[in-house]
Amino acid sequence: MLKKKNSRVDTIVGTTSTVKGEVVVNGLVRVDGSIEGRLEAETVIIGQDGKVKGDIKARNIVVGGLVEGNLYADESVEVESKGKIVGDIRTRKLTIVEGGIFEGQSIMHKEEGEKVVEMNRP
Description:
Layout: E1 11-13, E2 18-20, E3 23-24, E4 28-31, E5 34-36, E6 39-40, E7 43-46, E8 51-53, E9 56-63, E10 66-68, E11 71-79, E12 84-86, E13 89-91, E14 93-96, E15 101-103, E16 106-108
Parallel strand pairs: 1-4, 2-5, 3-6, 4-7, 5-8, 6-9, 7-9, 8-10, 9-11, 10-12, 11-13, 11-14, 12-15, 13-16
C-alpha cells in the first residue's frame, strides 16, 4: 500500500455511506463505502469494500475494492490483491499485485524531459 509522509486521511467515505455526484478533495480520501460519480483528490485509496463507479483523477491511486471507470494518475496506480478495475488507466507507474484484476487499456506516460530508451530487435 502507498506509504506517504503525513498520511493523514482528509476525507473518509464510510462502509455504510453512498455518495452520488462529483467529489473533490484537497488531500487524501479513503473510500470504504461507494461513490457514483467523478472523484478527484491528491491521493485516493479504495478499501476492500469500497466501490467507485466513475472516473478518478489523482496523483496516486490505490485500489483494494472495485472501480468501474477510467483512472488518471500523475504518479502511480496500485491494484491490490482483492482490487478490480474495469476501465482504462493513464499513469507513470502501474503495479498489479498477484490476484488483482485489471480489464482495460493502460497508457504509460513520462515526465517532460525524460528520455525513452528504444530496444531494437536483432
